[in-house]
Specification:
alpha/beta; D-Maltodextrin-Binding Protein, domain 2; seven-stranded mixed β-sheet; two-stranded parallel sheet; 30% helix
Length: 216
Amino acid sequence: MVSTTAGFAGVWLIPRLSSFVAAHPEVDVRISTGNNLANLERDGVDVAVRYRSVDLLPSGAVPLFDETVYPVCSPRLLRAAGAALKVPADLAGQTLLRMEPDGSNQLQDWGLWLHAMQLTQLKPAAVLHFSSYDQLIQAAVAGQGVALGRVPLIDRLLQGEAAGCALRRRRDLAQGLCMLVAAGAARAPEVQAFTAWLAAEALAPGSARPRGRAQP
């Protein structure tokens, strides 16, 4: 069993999973989503993918990639906005797509990004709230507003259905995705095959980005 967040499963893992299935049709892949995972062995989890501080990874964790956030929206909305969406202050005329605070996604919050842009008093035209990141990104793809895109998590969408806004200003997160493997499952051939595939996908062009300084 593979345990991860709904956002990572829906936006990154599932769109790529067909390549693993094609190479290993004999492996029964089961994906479970949720934000809490206390003990892999006790919960019957073989592999877990979780967000952790890049400076405080758990023992045995394998880093996959770090993340950067910047505003993204559908190309359709970007064309409609035109000159009205060129600098961060132009978000005052847009609908912002926002995650509901749950204690685990503060670093992805618009408040921190706007603070970094010195726009703490900005008033958007409207705000839509979501409990899952994959839902939020689908709303952005549908042209319903501007989201904080997590890169490289949404790199494939940025190549087609979503686009980085012209006001693109980057903010590096202090968290990254890591992979944990249950000790009792680490030597299983199917688990080794899956973890090797996952690590390779994370390093593939367009998937992994080195950490850098936030752009002003």
